[in-house]
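Record type: monomer structure entry
Structure origin: computed from sequence
Chain ID: A
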Amino acid sequence: MWIDVEGSPAWDTDVEWSRLDGAFRPGTIGAFKLKGGPELRFELERVELLRSYSNTVRLPGLRVRFTHEVESIDSRLNVVRHGAVLSGPLSWVLAPFLVRKLRAALQLALRNMLTQAELKAHVAAAA
């Protein structure tokens, strides 16, 4: 689901659209538009297929690095983590506002992703 960047608004409901301008690998640039917000560019940084990736959005005075990880506990259980790290000279000013918004958005996106993944697994098992 992560590498389907164009399909991510189906589970990341704060995003109106998103695209990746190349392969899902470090250094590739993409963009997304927040609902009711601006269009932002991002860069894929670290990519470990089927395990994790990170991408960074750079704004004047602020850098937001998003992390996405999956850890297999056993054959039936995976732990998925989404996170964000703020840095830059404006991070301390914006953090009180952004941390609440980012936490809520990441939690909702993770719940939506889980629901869709479980539905896909159920459909695949029934086929």
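Annotation 1: The chain has one helix and six strands.
Annotation 2: The two ends are 20 Å apart (CA to CA).
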